# Entry
Amino acid sequence: MVKPEVYGLFLRVRLYGILKDIVGPEVKIGTDKPLTVRELLALLNDMSGGGLGEWLDKVRVAVNGEVVESDEAIIRPGDDVALLPPSAGG
# Structure
C-alpha cells in the first residue's frame, strides 16, 4: 500500500476495483499547487512502483463527484478525487 507524506494541503484520492488492489483504498497526496489529471495519474503510478501503468489509459477520474473527460482537467488541493476502473458491460 502506498504511504505518502501529507503536508497540510492535500488531495484525497479514493481508488476502486483493481486500482484499489494495486494502490490501496485511499491515498492522500501533499501538494500546494494544482495538478492536471495527467500529472496526478503519473504521480500515482510512480508511487505504486509502476503498478498502474497498464490501467492509466483506461481509468475514469472523478473530481468532486463529477467525471472529468480531459487529462488536462485541473485538480486543486482540497479536491476529492476518485479513480474508477474500467467497467464491463454489454
